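Here is one chain, start to finish.
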Amino acid sequence: MRLMSTSFRVICALALLALAGCGSVSKRECETGDWYGIGVRDGANGYGEERFLDNAKACVKHGIAADRERWLDGRMRGLERYCTVRNGLGVGARNDAYRGVCPRPDEDEFLRGYELGRDLHHARARVSSLDSEIYEIKERLRRHHDADPDDEKEKKDRLSDAERVELAYRLGVAVTQREIAERDCAVLEDQARDL
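Its structure:
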């Protein structure tokens, strides 16, 4: 009997820890009970209805019940802020995930901005990647140029003629690709300003 009550206590403690880990609202927010305000915040951050369960679980450990109807009303108000073309642009540009929370026809507008934002994110990432590639090639060429041919430690930095030609070619390609990527980025930024 004692073993069963100990096991029961361990299970209950684990369940409470699991509930505490899911918390999305603080004890103070649970006590205040502003479920409309919590819903507005969650909607404005693009959370789906599953977020209410996380909120409710966080408050259960304090013995406080959540008000689903007030939260849903607030979430719908928050979604009005979230589901805009400008916010979609920002979400996409940060490469954040879209959880499919916007109702139609707001979703069409949000997705228009979101897709442009994602394109802009990828274009900026491409420019950054090419910047890194160009830097690395220039560094290898610089180390080759600065390497003392008589120093054994610097022998590894010496390049053959074929390696230098290949690096010079790769540098030219990377610079050209970066110019194209920079132009693509500028076009997307112009489109974003026009939203």
